[in-house]
Amino acid sequence: MSALTEQFVDWAWNLTPADLPPEVSRAARRHLLDGWGCALAAARLGTARPALAVAGQATAPPEAAVPGLAARLPAGSAAFAIGALVHALDFDDTHPVALVHPTAVVLPVLSAVGQLTGAGPAELETAAVCGYEFVIRLGAAVPHGFHARGFHATSVCGVFAATLVAARLLGLTRSQAVSALGIAGSTAAGSMEFLAAGTETKALHPALAGQAAVTAARLAAAGATGPASILEGRYGLFAAYLQAAPPQALAGDLGERWEVTRIDLKPYPCCHLSHATLDALGDAGYRADDLESCVIDLPEASVPIVAEPRPSKVAPRTPYEAKFSLPWTAAALLIDGDVTVDTFTDIARPQVAALADRIAVRPVQFDYPPATALGKVTLRTRSGAIVDAVATRAGHADQDAVAVQKFVANAGDGERSRALAHSVLEDGWRNP
After folding, report:
1. Can you tell me the distance from the alpha carbon of 118 to that of 431, in angstroms, rounded to the nearest whole number?
2. Packing angle, helices 75-88 and 22-45, rounded to 10
3. In the chain, fewer beta carbons within 10 Å around the N or the C end?
4. Dist CA 377 CA 53 (whole Å)
């Protein structure tokens, strides 16, 4: 049997725009639009300044444009900068089973290398779908497995997807593409230790994956070789990172089951594991002044990420730490009525911290990936009433109207942004 990388490359190199079902094309366009909107919002808010500053130091050869920078950058540096922008606000999409941010690793390389090669909308869309399907299958092979072992699946798995996109756009042969994936495997990284101090390291993970992907593809094009067994080998991704074997059918249903249609747009710019709870609180219709206490049922696997350690979750030290605090974001929603990009501009809010301290988290057993769990809260009102509120799924329906509304809010410029969004959805993705 051929290596997994060979199976993915063979499928991707045979895939044509005509092979994409309409709903797959539409989903890819929605998510590319959403990712670009997140990048524009981060550029407008200045959220990724260090990444743009470092990327901006590499100015030759000028191969690709980046939001927020005047000069064009080399493709690898542009992929780094765009990756940082897309993920900076933690507002980019998520696949709830794989628990990866697919667009954060696909779009940066698609944009940077696509600008370099002049790829048209049909080729860009097809390459994007290849990347989406690859990163989702890798992340979902052992649901929550990477996170449980301290690895950020978006970057660990994403470097392979980004490399596949880069290799296809650069016109590598099949054998060169397999080598590029083998090379990329030596750069697969991303530590969850950012949770310990609330640093912004996580936002850089897609950036580093994109930069490594462009380098891996260019190395393979220049003759460097990499192991085809980088995924299933004795020291490959699954053995080294998960101490597990990959599922036998990891690549078996490519072209039959399309995971890109199952990606969720994020309604809140914070950790996806908090979204179902925030939906439940919002649906309940109560505000902070109405409540005596709140108890949240949360899957055990989510607790170390968004509910512990308790002191830093109640009173986060940094905006990024607040994004990974369920008690704090829940309190902010109850006080403000919503959680938006502006929620995290000022976290020194005693009223939010005081309410967060009255919000308890109760770990519960859940047999499915934690991001697919119901959001369930029990509220005690000041009048003594006990109210249970449940949200049936995290996030909102992945529909065009939602994508357009979010893009316009992120990008600004009202009707011009709305017209651009509709153009992308109807005519396909075009690089700037």
Report:
1. 9
2. 90
3. N
4. 43
Determine if the peptide bond prior to 304 is cis (ω within 30°).
no
What domains are defined for the chain?
A: 4-262 (1.10.4100.10), 272-391 (3.30.1330.120)
Instruction: Please tell me the distance from the alpha carbon of residue 98 to that of residue 140, in angstroms, as a whole number.
Output: 4
Q: 163-176, pLDDT tens digit by residue?
A: 999 999 999 999 99
**Residues 85 and 43: beta-carbon distance below 8 Å:** yes
pLDDT by residue (tens digit) across 191-203?
Answer: 999 999 899 999 9
Q: How many CB atoms lie within 10 A of CB 368?
A: 12
Q: Residue 400 and residue 425: Cα distance in Å, rounded?
A: 8
In the three-class reduction of DSSP (H, G, I as helix; E, B as strand; rest coil), residue 293 is classed as strand
Provide φ and ψ at 110, rounded to 5°: -55, -40
Pairwise CA distance, residues 265 & 18, whole Å: 26
- Using CA atoms, how far residue 301 sits from 126, 154, 361, 366, in Å, is 35, 17, 13, 8
Kindly give, in sequence order, each residue whose CB lies less than 8 Å from that of residue 373, ignoring residues fewer than 6 positions away: 276, 298, 299, 302, 366, 394
Evaluate whether 34 touches 407 at the Cβ level (below 8 Å): yes
